């Protein structure tokens, strides 16, 4: 019989403070793993916090020690998605790199996220499709400044004659849509392909196709 997290969470963790930190991180990881699954399946409104706790092996009261409200748990899930996305996006903001190399790496990173974190991507997509009512300010304050930095890099590349004049904003919108669709709409893709899931070959083909399309805009 496996030990539930609830049975160990309220016990003091012996030893150094670092062990207590590690213990907290392990419990939070278990909570977030189940929260992502449920939010991706049912959205915010359809996800009972008690069910997240049960799946994570905790009581609702104990879960709320880590995340006092469902909103705080939902926000943490979205924060983790956005942190990862922006870290990949930040690699664009280097005007001294070769534009083709930068964009190849960016497309690959975005597709890798779609393959490795499809549920997290769907939670974010569902929030945005619903009008970003709970997370709009964070998107506005974190995505917009970085997008402006990346646009400035494209403008410098254009001024230096490294790429053809291009609307960088809409090019990035297109990259986001193409790469994220392999997570957010994978169910449709697998139905069309007649299989249960996308495999490594699908993502390799997607990377080649999307990269070719993106780089063609720069010539």
What does this molecule look like?
74% of the residues lie in helices and 0% in strands. It is mainly alpha-helical. The protein folds into two domains: 5-68, Arc Repressor Mutant, subunit A; 77-216, Tetracycline Repressor, domain 2 (Orthogonal Bundle). The chain is globular.
Summary tags:
Tetracycline Repressor, domain 2, 219 residues, mainly alpha, 74% helix, Arc Repressor Mutant, subunit A, 11 helices
- Structural class of the helices, strands and pairings? mainly alpha
CATH architecture call of the largest domain: Orthogonal Bundle
The CATH topology label of the largest domain is Tetracycline Repressor, domain 2
Total count of strands:
0
Produce the secondary structure layout.
Layout: H1 5-9, H2 17-42, H3 49-56, H4 60-66, H5 70-89, H6 99-116, H7 118-129, H8 136-159, H9 168-184, H10 186-193, H11 200-216
Helix pairs in contact: 2-3, 2-5, 2-7, 5-6, 5-7, 6-9, 6-11, 7-9, 9-11
């Amino acid at each position: 019989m496996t030990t539930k997290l609830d049975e160990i969470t309220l016990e003091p963790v012996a030893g150094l403070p670092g062990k207590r930190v590690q213990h907290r991180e392990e419990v939070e990881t278990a909570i977030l793993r189940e929260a992502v699954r449920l939010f991706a399946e049912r959205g915010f409104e359809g996800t009972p916090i008690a069910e997240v706790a049960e799946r994570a092996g905790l009581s609702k009261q104990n879960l709320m020690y880590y995340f006092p409200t469902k909103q705080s748990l939902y926000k943490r899930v979205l924060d983790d998605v956005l942190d990862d996305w922006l870290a990949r996006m930040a690699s664009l903001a280097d005007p001294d790199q070769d534009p083709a190399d930068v964009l190849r790496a960016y497309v690959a990173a975005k597709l890798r996220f779609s393959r490795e974190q499809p549920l997290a991507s769907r939670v974010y997509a569902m929030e945005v499709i619903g009008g970003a009512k709970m997370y709009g300010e964070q998107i506005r304050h974190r995505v917009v400044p970085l997008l402006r930095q990346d646009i400035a890099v494209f403008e410098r590349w254009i001024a230096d004659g490294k790429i053809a004049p291009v609307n960088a904003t809409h090019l990035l919108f297109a990259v986001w849509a193409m790469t994220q669709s392999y997570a957010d709409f994978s169910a449709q893709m697998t139905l069309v392909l007649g299989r249960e899931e996308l495999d490594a070959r699908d993502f390799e083909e997607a990377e080649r196709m999307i990269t070719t399309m993106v780089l063609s805009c720069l010539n």
